[in-house]
Structures are given as structure tokens and as C-alpha cells.
Amino acid sequence: MDQKKAVLLLSGGLDSTTLLALAVSEGHAVHALSFSYGQRHRAEVAAARKIAERYGAVQHVITDIDLRAFGGSALTADIDVPKDAPVGSGSGIPITYVPARNTIFLSFALAFAEVIGARSIFIGVNALDYSGYPDCRPEFIEAFERMAQLATRAGVEASSESEAIRIRAPLIHLTKKEIIELGLSLGVDYGLTTSCYDPGADGDACGHCDACRLRLKGFAEAGSRDPARYAGVA
């Protein structure tokens, strides 16, 4: 059993790309997993393909699931994406939350990990500079890991801690500024990534949704220029 095999959830965004570069730098043989889940645009899946190749994933699986069947989110239903709200000003869970998305994604990753014999699943959730999503909290990650020990052959048959499947979320307590600084130290090309909830047909970021505003704020605080393309910016 190769203990360095890892499954990594790769969205094509800033956080998961930083995570991929970090996992590879630590010597993991990364099997990247991305989803076409009925999101508003295909830009992130296209970005994930390029990123997986650039940063040395040994395998990249793109899985089709259709969360539009349920809707309930501005990312999977005909609901306007909120724009220009001050970062961190909202209360409650925003309409861009996709119901149970990380639970669903991690469940697929758990099955993938069992098949290939991986003992680490990496997810780029963040509990500081996040938008109020319940499935980005440390409590959720800890609970899912406990469930994984009960629900899988790998967990039931594990004879030691090192053989149990672990959910790795090394960015969870970092600010967006710190994540960007980490990525830059690892040589990440953030021009390949996309974070926007509502990009244009050409893939240019809107610059006004929560994801864009958090990203721009992080780059500004890191003293660096965001290389992503923004609509109306030359």
C-alpha cells in the first residue's frame, strides 16, 4: 500500500490549486477529482484540467453529477448571483451555498480513495475568509472523517492510525492573504485559476460577486496583483 497516494478535490479555483501545489511539494502522488455538477459555467472544469496537468497530478478524474435536479443555489438554479455586497457583511448562509455539496464531493472522494488505496483526501475548505458555508467548518471536516472510519472497509480493517483514511484540510485556518502567499511561495500561477461565481461567456471574472471580492481582497492584502482576467479591465 502506497501511503503517499492522495485524492484531492480540484475545483480549478485559487484554494484547491494552492492545495494541489502543496500536496505535490510534500511528495504525495495526487489523484485529482473534479466535478461537472450543473454549475453555472464550465470555466472551472476547463481550468481544473490545465491545473492538474501543470502541477503534476498523476491522474485527473472529472465526474458528472447534476445538482440542478435539486437547485436551491444561485450556482445551480435560475437565481441571481449577489453582487457588490461588502465582504463579510452578510448574515446567515448565502444563496451561493450549494446544499450538501462538500458532503457529496467528499463521498465521491472517499470511494475513489478506497479503490486506489489512498489514505489521504485533500480538500481546500477555509473557515476564516469564507462566505458562511456550513460545510467549510472544522467541525464538518472532523465529523466526516469520523464517518469515513465507520463507513469504509479501509476504516473498519485499519490496524493503526496510519492506515485510516484522513481528511486533510491544511488551508482551513488560513486567511485568503496567507493562502495566496503560500501559493506564490510554491510558484503557483494564479492566472490559470478561476474563482468567479458568475463569469462572462469569455471566462472573464465579474469582479463583483463574493468570490471575486474575497479573492481581490486577498491579493491586495498580500501586496500582489491578481493575474485573473476581469470584465472591463484591460
Q: Can you describe this structure in just a few lines?
A:
With 234 residues, this protein is an alpha/beta fold. The chain contains 7 helices and 5 strands. It has helices spanning 14-25, 43-54, 101-116, 138-151, 153-157, 176-185, 210-221, and strands at residues 5-9, 29-36, 59-64, 120-122, 166-168.
Topology, pairings included?
Elements: E1 5-9, H1 14-25, E2 29-36, H2 43-54, E3 59-64, H3 101-116, E4 120-122, H4 138-151, H5 153-157, E5 166-168, H6 176-185, H7 210-221
Parallel strand pairs: 1-2, 1-4, 2-3, 4-5
Description of the molecule:
The chain has helices at residues 14-25, 43-54, 101-116, 138-151, 153-157, 176-185, 210-221, and strands at 5-9, 29-36, 59-64, 120-122, 166-168. It is an alpha/beta fold and 234 residues long. It has one domain: HUPs (Rossmann fold, 3-Layer(aba) Sandwich). A 5-stranded parallel beta sheet has the order 3-2-1-4-5, with helices on both faces. Helix 1 packs across helix 6 and helix 6 (176-185) crosses helix 7 (210-221). It starts with a strand and ends in a 13-residue tail after the last helix. 40% of the residues are buried. The mean pLDDT is 91.
